[in-house]
């Protein structure tokens, strides 16, 4: 967990060092706003056992961390569709109308917790080195926006895209935060650069630096300094865990975020809240250590999900074929995993080899590993369709 937090530090601290602020009224007001938010954020009951999977699993999906593979390759195969929490029109936005759902995977930030039964909710997330996350966000913005270049001009691209969406009723990347802001912005830019290229004809400068091909796309350094990127991408994971993103469902969050952007030193409070939240999560993975993180996900989250679902299916036998279909995955696992419902002896993060972990059932662990080696090979996440219609829950 500490390792995860390390990834947060450099960005916020960098901001701190570089900034001098004036002690004007604005600062005083902002400091009060941030402190009030912080004390409310830290003042929540701690769960009796944060290592125990509660009824609802909230996957706080930070964009560009690879969370999509956890969802498609694993969680979606375990949880019957009926237990998945519904999303509203823009998909990765939670729709709280189904109170008994068990799995919620969204780009919504932590502010969503106020709409969920807090004590009955376990939160998990995956973090990534912020620099890589930013590179990846930039690349994905261009990738999705560039799919529109098949159209002759921006007007026709926008019109065609919305026509296709209406017709197929599918969810587009453009419906999902943060892409619903980042992609149109980049799309407009790509088209205007293409128009300029048309005039220049063959006089296009060649660059070997793919982050700086100014004739074709907004260079990375311009992208990252733009106010849109500053609001949405800078310290994005920290803000998401703190519940302070541009997408937050609380009005006060936006005030806090604006204050922190204005007076960088106030960022330490945000960091403090984010660290506490991470500490209280059931699981935090790291994109960089995919194999280890996925294995740990299996040990910490996966095995508890399986136990929970098996227990549920005993109480209320599967009535529809979908649920049966999902459970067949469990049944195809070596028997030790699903016949034995003892979860107390799980190999919780950091306690492996600990004498407290009595009775660890080795064959159970092996079958989980087996399952996860299948997960590691799963390449569902590579699936991309074109025309801006990709389900970009990456
Ligand atoms: C954009 O392209 C469409 C389709 O070719 C064309 O009808 C329209 O006039 C173009 N609009 C502009 C502003 O160039
Ligand atoms: C081509 O680009 C270079 C550098 O931008 C410029 O000096 C030159 O005049 C341009 N040539 C033409 C034909 O536009
Ligand atoms: C979020 O950011 C986008 C892009 O900068 C902006 O258009 C939008 O209004 C912002 N939303 C909020 C609630 O600040
Ligand atoms: C693990 O569980 C299986 C099946 O319930 C059982 O056969 C095996 O003996 C158990 N192993 C240990 C170490 O408890
Ligand atoms: C599960 O395993 C425990 C210990 O490993 C054993 O005591 C228990 O009987 C097993 N339960 C089932 C249903 O196999």
TrEMBL record:
EC number annotated for this UniProt entry: 2.8.2.-
Transmembrane segments: none
Signal peptide extent: 1-22
Top-level EC class as recorded in UniProt: transferase
Domain Sulfotransferase: 87-145
Subcellular localization(s) per the UniProt record: Membrane
Residues forming coiled coils: none
Sorted UniProt keywords: Glycoprotein, Membrane, Signal, Transferase, Transmembrane, Transmembrane helix
Highest taxon in the source lineage: Eukaryota
GO molecular function, one term: heparan sulfate 6-sulfotransferase activity
A GO CC term assigned to this protein in UniProt: membrane
Family: Belongs to the sulfotransferase 1 family.
PANTHER family, A to Z: HEPARAN SULFATE 6-O-SULFOTRANSFERASE 3, HEPARAN-SULFATE 6-O-SULFOTRANSFERASE
Protein name, per record: Sulfotransferase
């Amino acid at each position: 967990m500490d390792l995860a937090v390390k990834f947060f530090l450099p960005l916020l601290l960098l901001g701190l060092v570089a900034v001098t602020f004036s002690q004007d009224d604005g600062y005083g007001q902002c400091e009060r706003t941030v402190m009030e938010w912080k004390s409310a954020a830290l003042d929540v009951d701690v769960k009796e056992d944060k290592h125990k999977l509660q009824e609802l699993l909230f996957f706080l999906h930070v964009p560009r961390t690879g969370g999509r593979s956890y969802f498609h390759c694993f969680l979606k195969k375990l949880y019957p569709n009926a237990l998945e929490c519904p999303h509203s029109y823009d998909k990765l936005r939670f729709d709280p109308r189904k109170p008994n759902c068990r799995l919620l995977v969204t780009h919504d930030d932590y502010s969503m917790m106020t709409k969920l039964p807090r004590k009955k909710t376990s939160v998990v997330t995956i973090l990534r080195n912020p620099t890589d996350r930013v590179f990846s966000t930039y690349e994905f913005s261009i990738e999705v926006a560039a799919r529109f270049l098949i159209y002759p001009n921006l007007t026709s691209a926008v019109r065609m895209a919305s026509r296709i969406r209406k017709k197929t009723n599918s969810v587009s990347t453009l419906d999902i935060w943060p892409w619903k802001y980042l992609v149109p912005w980049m799309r407009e830019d790509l088209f205007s650069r293409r128009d300029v290229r048309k005039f220049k004809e063959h006089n296009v400068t060649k660059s070997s630096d793919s982050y700086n091909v100014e004739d074709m796309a907004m260079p990375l350094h311009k992208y990252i300094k733009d106010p849109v990127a500053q609001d949405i991408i800078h310290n994005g994971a920290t803000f998401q865990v703190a519940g302070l993103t541009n997408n937050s469902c609380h009005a006060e969050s936006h005030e806090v975020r604006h204050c922190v952007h204005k007076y960088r030193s106030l960022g330490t409070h945000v960091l403090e809240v984010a660290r506490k939240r991470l500490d209280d999560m059931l699981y935090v993975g790291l994109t960089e250590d995919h194999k280890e993180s996925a294995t740990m996900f299996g040990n910490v989250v996966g095995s508890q999900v399986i136990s929970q679902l098996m227990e549920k299916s005993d109480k209320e036998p599967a009535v529809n074929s979908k649920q049966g279909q999902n459970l067949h995955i469990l049944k195809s696992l070596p028997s030790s995993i699903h016949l034995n419902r003892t979860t107390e002896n799980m190999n919780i993060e950091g306690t492996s080899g600990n004498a407290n972990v009595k009775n660890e059932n080795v064959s159970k662990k092996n079958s989980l590993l087996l399952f996860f080696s299948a997960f590691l090979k799963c390449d569902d996440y590579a699936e991309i369709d074109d025309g801006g219609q990709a389900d970009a829950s990456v």
